[in-house]
Design goal:
Number of domains: 3
CATH superfamily of the largest domain: ATPase, nucleotide binding domain
Radius of gyration: 24 Å
Distance between the termini: 12 Å
Mean pLDDT: 88
Largest sheet: 5 strands, mixed
Helix content: 40-55%
Length: about 400
Amino acid sequence: MRKIDLNNFQVATSETVRDINSRIMLNLVRRHQPVSRADLMRYSGLQRSTVSAIAEQLISERWLKEGAVGNLPRGRKPTFLHLNADRCGVIGVDVQPDTTTLAVASMDSQILARELMPTAKDPAEFVARLSRRIKDLMQAHPKNSYGGIGISLPGRIDASSKRLIFAPTLGWNELDLKTPLEHAIGVPVELENAANACVLAELWSRHGVFNLIAVTVSDAIGVGLVMNGQLVRGSTGVAGEFGHVAQVQDGPQCRCGNSGCWEVLASNSAAVRYYAEAAAPRKGEVGSKSDMATVPFGDILRLVERGDSRACKALDKMAHHLGVGIAMLVTGLAPDLLVVVGEITRAWDRVGPIVADAVKRRSFTHAATRILPTDPEAQPRLQGTIALVLEKHFGAPSIA
């Protein structure tokens, strides 16, 4: 049950009912297309006249288009409906510390073009460069209109002000990205934490799953939560910071100021540290500088593929701590599905069993949670930025 906030509500009107039914129809077409009006009647339970009226309205507004005519042995031949993927475009932007990925997508979430740009360290310079690149991208891929720009950030967004509160890996704090971008481009901008964007992508792509968690693993650890079909943001938009829950007392220092956080034990940078520690000379020994050099996480994964024992031990230790943190989420929230996002999924054949063993040993709630890796090629963060915009048109309208 969703409690009605009597300090902030909107009464339902006949327009509200039409809006809800229209969005239901849009989502039914999205799931079942190509679909006839008769099929929409069966799926929705609405009367023929209501379905026809909504369909005609959505066609006139160019949300839907008619396609092929079906063959029946007798009676009126049905005309199938599809989403009009060309109605408007969507811009997706995935911001990461070194590289920002931009994409143009259609209304059916298909990525039409993708390009990369360096992530400028100075926020003002970044906004200026990003504005120019988005304008160039929109000109190169002209649409009748653009429905919005979705931006994924490795940080937290204030729910009310829509300002970036903090992004440690970017070195940005208390920053308004939304206003200058909207002024420069003239298109609505939606900002979201990267983990929240990933869990939204999963919510939009998986039918019948309403309790799910996304764990993003990079140089930080992020957690996105969908409970009972709703994205959990908390009162200020910072819900889900499980990466900064302490796992080990008096453990390594974390960027947040605490010690032994999940992030400092199970992130990519943790595996890099474990590998470097294994390479460090013991007391009384002399080690070469090459042995002591920092090895990027991607190189550690390649060394694991070749069976390098030091790299395997570093990855195994990271995987163990990742599993301990995931056990906490499974025990506390009992999701139907938990997805892991990041480079670590490339080694899931090795990492997955270690994570599963840690969860089995530490979670005693008997929650039937599926733990799955995402395919990096599927661009989950980028797909999440597109979902941010699409939910404004396909999501349930807020009426209370």
